[in-house]
Amino acid sequence: MLKKRIVVCLDVKEGKTTKGIKFQDNVELGDPVEMANAYYLQGVDELVFYDITASAEKRPIMIDVVARVAQKIFIPFCVGGGLSSAEDIRRVILAGAEKVSLNSPAVKNPELIRTAARMYGSQSVVLGMDVLADPAMKSGYRVVINGGRTPTGLDALEWALQAESLGAGEIVLNSIDADGTKAGYELTVTRLISTHVGVPVVASGGAGTPEHLRAVLQEGRADAALVASMVHYGTYTVRQIKEFLAEKGVDVRL
């Protein structure tokens, strides 16, 4: 069994790390380069960088900030936000990212996943998926794009399986219902996707305590857990989270 991973997410807007609740009312938190370095020193397993308004604003990702973060950390680094072409993906990889996260652009053009996988291998292609609970959908969950602004007709499970077949090597699954609430991950959708796809699933949205991570990694069957608010506000360090999980029998890298 592979060790469970702890991933810190930096949502970046106008060059600053930010955090909201259910994608609303974002608060500026600090410099993403400094924060990335701090989490690296704390022992985080991976870092994810999202330029959260790039798709909605139809502009390129902030490549200079990506490059500066990449210079500070020596762990897997995933970057997303407005990557809508092979050239966008190439620029991010050349700037120092090991992985690219494709979210809204992949929904609009699923072949982008196949293109990215052919260019850099499936291990470098992450499907970013934002979902909302919706009983009208077959799985009970609907895919939403453009930073939570635009509902689609896509069923969450069907889209996850399609993306895997196109070459996505990992899925970051974010529940908008739970995002930023610090009330716990959405375990039902996490377990649903994790048990139906053959690629690693990173749970996102709702982490508030180390116990929430234990629950999503064990009961939710996630391969990794993404955190933001609970470390950004200094409530916990990455080390404290990992030590708690190890005590609870979760196999993490200390």
Concise description?
This protein has 254 residues and is of the alpha/beta class.
Q: How would you describe this protein?
A:
By secondary structure, the chain is an alpha/beta fold. It has one domain (5-247): Alpha-Beta Barrel (TIM Barrel). Helices cover 33% and strands 28% of the residues. It is built from 10 helices and 12 strands. It has helices spanning 32-42, 63-70, 86-94, 104-108, 111-120, 156-166, 187-194, 210-218, 229-232, 238-247, and strands at 5-13, 16-21, 24-30, 46-51, 77-80, 99-102, 125-133, 141-145, 150-155, 170-175, 201-204, 224-227. It has an 8-stranded parallel β-barrel, surrounded by 6 helices. Helix 8 crosses helix 10 (238-247). The chain is globular, with a radius of gyration of 16 Å. The two termini are 16 Å apart.
Write the layout of secondary structure elements.
Layout lengths: L4 E9 L2 E6 L2 E7 L1 H11 L3 E6 L11 H8 L6 E4 L5 H9 L4 E4 L1 H5 L2 H10 L4 E9 L7 E5 L4 E6 H11 L3 E6 L11 H8 L6 E4 L5 H9 L5 E4 L1 H4 L5 H10 L7
Parallel strand pairs: 1-4, 1-12, 4-5, 5-6, 6-7, 7-10, 10-11, 11-12
Antiparallel strand pairs: 1-2, 2-3, 7-8, 8-9
Give a short account of the largest sheet.
8 strands, parallel, barrel
Which structural class do you get from the secondary structure elements? alpha/beta
**What percentage of residues falls in helices of 4 or more residues?**
25-40%
| Nearest-integer average pLDDT | 94
| Morphology | globular
